[in-house]
Amino acid sequence: MGVANDAAEFSLWLSPRILRNVDRILVEPFKWEEAKAGAYLTALVAIAEHSEGDVVEPPRTVHDCSHHEDNLILDLVAEVGALLVVSNDVDLISMSPWRGTPIVTPEVFRQKVDGMRRHARRRH
User: Fold this and answer.
1) Which domain holds residue 9?
2) pLDDT recorded at residue 79
3) Is 11 part of any domain?
4) CA angle, 96 as apex, 91 and 102 as ends, to 5°?
């Protein structure tokens, strides 16, 4: 989230479905209070908007994955023309690159961004 919050190189794109799933996971398995989960979701939306991304309801067009929820993520990827997807989902990662779009774990993403930023600092 910090990389998107910097709003320097990347935009965060979300869908209402993603926000509902994040809320459900925070409240059920992680036992967050509703107010805390709501504040987190508000922060996610603010980060998306600050990074020149947004919350988008994509049309249902993708049926490439056997998991319905993963297709909903790919619908968003297709709708916004994402250049990169960051996910811990094993099924999504196994599809990388999906229609030419790399799908990487958050750790790989962080490492690549850190390396890119170090390289840029050395050039200046």
Assistant:
1) 1-57
2) 97
3) yes
4) 130
Q: Is residue 83 predicted with pLDDT exceeding 90? A: yes
Count up the domains in the chain and report the number.
1
Total length of the chain:
124
Sign of the torsion formed by the C-alpha atoms of 106, 107, 112 and 118 = positive
**What local confidence, expressed as pLDDT, does residue 5 receive?**
52
Q: Which ranges in the chain belong to alpha helices (H)?
A: 2-6, 16-27, 34-50, 68-80, 90-94, 106-123
SS3 44: helix
Alpha-carbon distance of 97 to 36, in angstroms, equals 35
Residue linked to tokens 């989230």: 1
Q: Do 48 and 13 touch, CB atoms closer than 8 A?
A: yes
In a domain, 13, yes or no: yes
- Residue 117, pLDDT > 90, answer no
Q: Is 115 within the bounds of a domain?
A: no
> pLDDT confidence of 122, banded at 50, 70, 90?
confident
Question: What tokens does 124 get?
Answer: 């200046």
- Whether 88 maps to a domain, the answer reads no
